[in-house]
Amino acid sequence: MCVAHQAKLRSLRNFNQAFINGVTGSALKKDNVVKHSRSEMHKKAIALSSRPKLTLDAIFKTTPIGKALAGASSEEEKRVSKLFDIAYAIAKEELPFTKYPVFVELEKKHGVPLGNTYTHEAKCSEFIGVIGDTMKSEMLTALKEAQYFSIMVDGSTDASVKEQELVYVHFVNDKTGEVQSNFFCITDVKHATAQGLKDGLDEIFADADMSLKGKLVCVCADGAAVNMGVNKGLIALLRKDHEMPWLIGMHCLNHRLELAAKNAFEKTYMDEISEMLLSMYYVYQKSPKRLRELRTLGEVMEEVVTKPEKAHGTRWLQHKSRALATLLRSYPVIIAHLESMASESSAADGARFRGYLQVLTSFKFVMHCLLFYVMLQPLAALSCNLQGESVDLMFAMASLESFHTSMQSLESEHEDIEDASELSKFLHDITFQDGKAEVEYKNVRLINVRSDVFTAFQNSRKIYVKKIRECVDARFSDFNSQLFQAFKVLDTNAWPRDKPSLDQFGHKELNTVFEHFKGLLQEVQPESIQMEWNSFKSYWNSSLMDLQSSDVWRAFVKVSTSKYPNLGLLIRVLLTFPISNAKVERGFSTMRRIKTDWRCRLNARTLDHLMRISIEGPSSTDFNPQCAVKNFFCTPRKPNVQPYLYQGSNKRPYPLDD
After folding, report:
1. Are residues 20 and 107 in the same domain?
2. What is the model's pLDDT at position 575?
3. What pLDDT score was predicted for residue 658?
4. In whole angstroms, how large is the CA radius of gyration of the chain?
5. For residue 55, is it within any domain?
6. Is residue 117 part of a domain?
7. What per-residue confidence (pLDDT) applies to 633?
8. Tens digit of each residue's pLDDT (9 = 90 or more) over 468-522
9. Does 446 lie in the same domain as 553?
10. Range of the domain at 22
11. Are residues 246 and 263 located together in one domain of the fold?
C-alpha cells in the first residue's frame, strides 16, 4: 500500500523508506511492524487507497479547479456558439465572408459578449466548414444505413470556367421511413467525358467510404450522349465496370418533356411567335426609357402592363407560357406604344417597329398566339408537376394521363372548349362576308382577316394537338414497359377493395421487378416474397386502407425489417427511384448565386459547404449550432491567441494569420 502511493508520501515529515524498499533480517520485528502501522505515513497510504478515483467528469464537478475550468469552458462554448450562428447566417443568406467581421462588431455594439478571438473572416470560412462537415456526416450516416440508393447527376460550368458535377442521392431513410433526396456533393471534373465522370463518381463515393456496387439502383441524368450513350455513356460504363446489369438509366422526365415540345413546335408558325416574344423582350429590356413610356401609357389607358418576359434561354415550359401570357395581357398597350415609336423614331427603328406591328396585328398571329397559349397550359402543368420535391413514378404516370385528357379536349370544336375560353370567345364572334370580316382583339383592329386564313387555322389546330401528343408519347414510351408498369403496385389508392381481387393482385408485378433486379436482391428468398406480400395486403386491408400511399409505405418501411424482411428489400428498390433532375437544376442555380464573378476563387470544398447550407440547412433562426461547436472543440487547432494589431493611427489592423 505504501509502495503504491510512495510518490505522494515522500512529502511527509516522518517519511521512512524502510517499508518501501523492504525489511529483512533482524529489522523484521513485530514492534517495527506495529510501529509502522500506527505511523502517519501508513495512515496516509490507507486514506489514499480508500479514496475513490475520480473520473474526468467527476473532477470537473467536484474539485474547485475542475469547477473553474468547466465554467470557463461553458462560457467559451456559449461565446463560440454565437459566432457559429453569425457564420451560419452568412452562409444561409449567401453573403460573402467579408460581412462576418461587420456583423460581429455590430453584435458587440449591441452588448453581446463575443470576445476578440475567432472574429476574422478566415474563421467564418472555418466555422462554415465545420457546419458543412457536420451536416454531411449526418446525411452520410442515414445513407450508409440505407439498403439501396440512386443518384441524380448533372454538369455545368461555374464562374471560374470550371466543369462542375453536381450529385444528389435518393434513398429510403430506414429510421423515418421517408424517401429522401439529398445534396451529396459538388466536385470539379478533370475530364467531362463518360470515363471522366465515372472516375469522379467512384472517387467521391470512395472518399465517403462507400461503394456503388451492390447498392446503386438507378442513375437519373439528362439525355446527353455522355450520360445515356448505349455503349460508352456513363451509365453503360457503370454497368460494365461495376458488374451491375440491373442498373437503370433514367432520362429526366422534365428534359424529355422539353424535347417533346421542341419537336412538336419546330418548323411551324409557333417558331415565329417565339421569335416575336424574344424581340418584344429586347425592345424593352435594353431601353429603360421605352419601358417607362410603356408603363405610363398603360396608366393612361387604364390597362394592366407587365414587362415582356424572356422566353428563350430558360429551361422549363412555364417560362414560355408566362412570356406569352404577358404579351396577351399587355397587348393593347404594346400595340399603342409601338405605333407611337414607329412614327417618332429614326428611319431604321421606325421601319423595325412597323414590321413588328405588321406581325402583331395580323389575324393569323393573334389566333395562333391564343392557340399556342392554350396548348402550353397542359404542357406547363405537366412540367410543373414533374418538378416537385417528392414526385415519384406513380404521380408522374397519373400526371401524364391528366395531360392526355386535357389535350383531347383541345381537339374538339372551339365552342366546347372550357380550358381555352379566351380563344373560344374570340373565334365564336367572327362572321365572314365575301371572305372578309372586321375583327378586333382587345380593341385593336386586326389586319389580313380572311376566310382562307381562318380555315387554314382550324385545319392546323388538330394537327398541332396530334403532333404534341405523338411527340410526348414517343419521349415517354418506356412508361409502357413491363418494369415501369410493375411500379403501379406502389399506388395503394388503386388497389382492389374486394378480397378475391386483392388476393390475386401484384404477384406478377413483383416477379417482374425481382427478375430485373435479381443481381441486386441476392439476399432475397423469392418464395418468401409472395407469402410476405399476401400478409402485408391483409394487414393493409384491415388497418391501412384509408391512408395515402406515401403514409402506407412509410409505415411499411418501419416494420419491414422484422415482419417482411424479403418484401421490404424489394419495395425499397421500387421506392428508390428518381424521375427528375429538376432538383439538380435548382442546385446549379444555387451554385451560380454563390460562386459569382466576385467569388470565382472559391475552392470546391468551400463551395460544397456553402451550397449544402443554402440548399438543405434550416433557417438562420432555427439553426442549432451545438453539434457543430462540439465538433469544432474536438478538432485540434491553433492556440487561442489574441489577434496582433499594428500600432499607429494610420495603419489598418491585420490579424496575425493574414
Report:
1. no
2. 94
3. 37
4. 36
5. no
6. yes
7. 87
8. 999 999 999 999 999 999 999 999 999 999 989 999 999 999 999 999 999 999 9
9. no
10. 6-50
11. no
Rounded CA gap, 363 and 445, in Å? 9
**DSSP assignment letter at 221:** E
Answer for the pair 87, 101: CB distance below 8 angstroms, yes or no: no
Helix (H, G, I), strand (E, B) or coil at 436: strand
Residue positions counted in the chain: 658
Could you give the number of structural domains in the chain?
A: 4
**Cell 430558360 maps to which residue?**
314
245 and 269 in a common domain:
no
Q: Does residue 429 share a domain with residue 366?
A: yes
Residue 478 burial (CB count, 10 A):
12
- Of the candidates 450, 478, 506, which is a domain's last residue? 478
Sheet with 216-221: list strands edge to edge: 179-188, 163-172, 149-157, 216-221, 248-251
Q: What is the spatial distance between Cα 634 and Cα 76, in angstroms, rounded to a whole number?
A: 14
- Asked if 369 and 317 sit in the same domain, the reply is yes
Residue 149 forms beta bridges with which residues?
171, 216
* Same domain assignment for residues 159 and 241: yes
Contact 108/114 with Cβ under 8 angstroms?
yes
Centroid of chain to Cα 31: 85
With helix as H, strand as E and coil as C, how does 352-405 read? HHHHHHHHHCEHHHHHHHHHHHHHHHHHHHHHHHHCCCCCCHHHHHHHHHHHHH
Q: Which residues of the chain have pLDDT under 50?
A: 66, 69-70, 72, 414-420, 646-658
* Cα(386)–Cα(395) distance, integer angstroms: 8
At which of 575, 606, 632 does a domain end?
A: 575
Closest CA to 339 of 328, 323, 350: 350
> Is there a domain that residue 243 lies in?
yes
String of DSSP letters for 400-435 = HHHHHHHHHHHTS-GGG-STTHHHHHHHHT---BTT
Pair type for strands 149-157 and 444-445: unpaired
Q: What is the C-alpha to C-alpha distance for residues 20 and 3, in angstroms, rounded to an integer?
A: 5
d(CA 279, CA 200): 42
Cβ contacts of 578 within 8 Å, gap of 6 or more? 150, 152, 168, 170, 181, 218, 220, 250
In this structure, the answer to whether residues 585 and 462 fall within a common structural domain is: no
Q: Which cell goes with 143?
A: 445513407
Q: How confident is the model at residue 64, as a pLDDT? A: 59
What sign results for the dihedral spanned by CA atoms 191, 194, 199, 202? positive
Give CA–CA dist 419/374, Å, rounded.
7
Identify whether the C-beta of residue 249 lies closer than 8 Å to the C-beta of residue 219: yes
Where does 76-223 show beta strands of DSSP type E? Answer: 149-157, 163-172, 179-188, 216-221
- 1 falls within a domain: no
The rounded distance, in Å, linking the Cα atoms of 468 and 374 is 12
Q: What is the pLDDT of residues 225-236, one digit of tens each?
A: 999 999 899 999
